[in-house]
Amino acid sequence: MTSPREHRPREHRPREHRPREHRPSRHRPRRTRLRRTRLRRTRLRPTDLLRLGMIGPRTRKTRSALSALGICLGIAAVIAVTGISFSNQAHLLARLDQLGSNLITVSPGKGADQQPVPLPATAEKMLADIAPVQQVTATGATKAQVYRNDLVPPQQTGSITVLAARLNLLDVLHATVRSGRWLDGASESLPVTVLGDQAAQRLGVTASGERVWLGGQSFIVTGILAPNELAPEIGTAALVGWPQATAHLGADGTAATVYLRSHPERVPDVQAVAGATADPASPSTVAVSRPSDLLTARSEAKSALTGLVLALAAVALLVGGVGIANTMVVSVMERRGEVGLRRALGARGGQIAVQFLLEAVLMGLIGGLAGLLLGGLTVYGYALAQDWPASIPLPVLVAGPLVSVLVAAVAGIYPALRAARASPTDALRST
Prior knowledge:
About 50% of the residues lie in helices and about 15% in strands. By secondary structure, the protein is of the alpha+beta class. Helix 9 runs parallel beside helix 12 and helix 11 packs antiparallel against helix 12.
C-alpha cells in the first residue's frame, strides 16, 4: 500500500529576466521634414530712425552746432535781406502813394464847341460806388470873389477863386494845415474860410483869425494850408463849407472837381471806367487824369527790389548748403569705424544712408528755425531804427525752414550714399 504523497511547499524560483526581443514594426518609420525658415529683414521704426539721426548731433555737439550755425546764418540772411527789402519797399510805396500814385482827378472836359461841360449832379456819388475806389472828395465852384477888404476894386481878383470843399478834402489829398484849423461839422455852415498858401500870401494874411471880404460879406480866416503838390489849385483858393457856399455864394451844389483814391494795383481799371461812370450819357466830355509818373516809378521799384531779394537769397542758401555738405562729408570720414561696425552687425546700406541723411535734415531744420528767429529780430530792429513799417512776407516765413530742410537734404545725399557704399571690412580695418 502506497503512502500518500507528502505535501511539500513549492520552492519559489525567481524568473529570469529575458530581454524582450525587438520585433520589427509593420509601419514605416516617419520621415522628419526640416522646415526652412526665412530670416526676415529688420525694419527700423520711425522712432529708431530718429534716434539714429540724433547720434551725430549728440556725440559731436560742437561740429553739429557749427553746421547748424552755417545754415542758420544763411536762412537769417535770407529773412533779413527779404524783410529789410520789403520794409524799405513798403516805406517807398507808402511815400509814393502819399505823393499821389493812386490819386485820380475827374473834372469837366470840353465839348464840341470847346467849352467846358459841367459834371452831372450824380457824378460824385456814382464814382464813389466803383469797387476799387477807397476815398472820394470834391470841390465845387462858386460865383464869389475874395478880397482883402471891401475897398479893393472888384477887377483885382489876384487869380484867387472861392471853392466849396468837402470836409474830407485834406484826408484824400494828404494836405496839412500850416496854421489854424480845418473846417468841421460845426463851422462849415458859418462865414469862415480856409486859405491856400498862395491865396493867403496874395491877400496878405499871415495868421488865422483875420478877416477877408468874400462874396460881399466878411469871413473869418480859420486856417492857412501848407503847400500841396498833388492839387496846386487849392493853393490859390479860399475854401468854404459846402452848405455856406450853396446858401450864400451862388454854388449850385454840383462837384466841379472830384478826387478819387483807389487801390494802388487797380488805378488803371478805375481810370478806364471813371469817365463813363461820372457821365454815362457823354463820357467823352469828362476829363480823367492819368496816373502820374510816380505809378511807373512804383512798379519799377517793386520789380527791381524783388529781383535783388531773389538773387541775394539764392547766394545765401547756396553758402548754407555747401557748409552742410562739407560737414557731412567730414563726419562720414571720421565715423568709418562706426559705419563698418554697423554693417558687420547686419545693418543694410539703405539704413546707413537714411541715418546720415536724417542727421543732415535735422541740422538743417534746427538751423532754419534759428535763422528764422534771428532774421526776424534783425528785420524788426532795423525797421524800428529807420522808422519803417516792418514787413516780412508770410510765404518767406513759412518757406524759410522748409527751404533749409530741402537744402540740407540735397547737401546730405552724397555723404549718405558714400557712407552706404562703404565696405564693412575696409571700414573696420581703417579704425
